Amino acid sequence: MKFGKVEDPSIIDFSIPSDHGDTEVILNNIKEKNDTAFNLYVGCAKWNRQDLKNFYPRGTKDELEYYSRQFNCIELNATFYRIFPGEQFAKWYDKTPDDFKFFPKLSQDISHLRRLNDKVYPFVDAYLDAASNLKEKLGTIFLQMHNNFNPKNWDRVITFVERWPKEFKLAIEFRHTDWFNDEKIAQELYHLLEENNMANILVDTAGRRDLMHMRLTNNEAFVRYVGANHESDYDRLDEWVERLAMWKDKGLQNIHFFVHQNLEVESPLLSAYLIGKLNERLGTSLRIPQTLVPPKSLF
Predict the structure, then answer these.
(1) Within a domain: residue 275?
(2) InterPro entries per the record (predicted)?
(3) Average of per-residue pLDDT across 275-297
(4) How many domains does the chain have?
(5) C-alpha span between 82 and 274 (Å, rounded)
């Protein structure tokens, strides 16, 4: 994952900013309702052996089957590149445990090629028809917009969000800095997501600290964390544990945290480390993946 990569991570201030003021309002509203159980999902972005080197034991025949018995979720990036047939989603469903969830990315046909124009809706329908074969294992779907998709496309965003079938949970990642630098635009965006119960994705990557807006818009923290293949990766995760614990204490009930790296080799190790720390801090009991390389071995 090259997005936000820097040559020298040691010069980056990785401190997590203070919460946006309205995040407190969202959490207070959630705590008053207190109508769902707490859910924690932590995983990687991919399961293939080529990316997750040294993770699979020798002789592993089915990578997804093994991966899904180590982690409780996957951020499914493969679905960005093409719309898989429903039969493929059904096969993924059958290979994974009952408590496993997929968090698939919407196709680039929707986000990057047609950029939410009025031609995207047949693609949305086809995608959702296929992805629905995951049944109860379908987690939040996420939409990632191109870096150059800016607020001049605001009308497209409104139409897309309001037309989205609400039986499918959606989170959205905006990467153009103007969505957050202009306070009026930012507030309009946050309120649109709030009104439609959609998550505002938090992206923690070295070269784009401007995306750390720390603004929750519903009862879901959807975090995409990009490690820098640097010793600071573990300290950054420690800080996330504290922020997530604070949000949970204030009422947050859904944490979906996905670990990436510029070079994915250490992603399972970072994820295992994070799960262990969250179990200690939050009192949860997620299974900790059995990794083949000791933590911090590459630093």
Answers:
(1) yes
(2) DUF72 (IPR002763), UPF0759_sf (IPR036520)
(3) 84
(4) 1
(5) 31
